[in-house]
Amino acid sequence: MPDKAYTHLLFDLDHTLWDFDRNASEVLTDMFAEFKMAAYGVASAQHFIDQFHLVNYRLWDQYNRGEIGKDTIRAERFKRVLANLGVDYREFSTDFGEYFLAHCPRKPHVLPYTIEVLDYLQGRYEMHILTNGFDTVQAIKMASAGIDGYFGEVVTSERSGHRKPSVEMFAFILDVTGAPKETSLMIGDNLETDILGARNAAIDQVYFNPNKASHQEAVTYEINSLKELMGFL
Ligand SMILES: [Mg+2]
Mind listing the pLDDT tens digit for each residue in 163-178? Predict the structure, then answer.
């Protein structure tokens, strides 16, 4: 049982509920065929996918640190991926970035047990989304996955003008939801943005760590599967 009676759950979206890796990989596999990338010397769809995730992770890390903006992610992402693959971005008339943005958010896959857990939690807690993503994209993702009905507020960095892990981002969602920080719980997969961010804002945390990454941080709770939430909430 939890030490406290929580009232409000604040969920991260990407990699916590919405399965970004799986959804992105499906679109990238389609793109590999659509853009005939084998003809440009790209060894396999998997190689393309691996390069994408490498570049994307680095750009989002910079974004979370406030070093770059959304436009830079969108403009640079595929240029860098293709450069890493030795392909000249200018050879393609269709914009890779536009194709990806048009298709990826429409993919429906969620992490295992997402729906079961949300069904269980609904009615027991007020639930909201706190994400560093962008308004339109995150709304499409949630609708595509059929999870938009579970949440009251969806606070993005675009809407709040702040980014996790800033204390201001957490203050913003407490303000718009009326959630008391003492009985709120942040659930997310990113140790820095979600977990340390919540901790600095004096909010308890659930670190969702499906890959069992090792770390030294003191977290309120740690789970490897979303299903574990039903054991203590
Ligand atoms: Mg995340």
Answer: 999 999 999 999 999 9
Q: How far, in Å, is the centroid of ligand 1 from the Cα of 61?
A: 11
Rounded CA separation 230/91 (Å): 51
- How many angstroms separate the CA atoms of 178 and 43, rounded? 52
Q: Measure the CA dihedral 142/147/151/153, to 10°.
A: 10
CA 202 to chain centre: 22
CA of 12 to the centre of ligand 1 (A): 6
> Can you give the length of the chain in residues?
233
The alpha carbon of 130 and the centre of ligand 1 are apart by a number of angstroms equal to 10
Q: How far is CA 132 from the centre of its chain?
A: 7
Residue in the block written with tokens 């830079």: 72
Instruction: Compute CA distances 13 → 87, 151, 184, whole Å.
Output: 32, 11, 17
Q: Is the dihedral of CA 14, 19, 24, 25 positive or negative?
A: positive
Calculate how far, in angstroms, residue 154's C-alpha sits from the geometric centre of ligand 1: 14
> What is the pTM for the complete model shown?
0.94
pLDDT at residue number 135: 95
Calpha distance 163→150 (Å, rounded) = 23
Q: Which amino acid is at 15?
A: H
Distance 229 CA to ligand 1 centre (A): 17
**Residue 141 DSSP code:** H
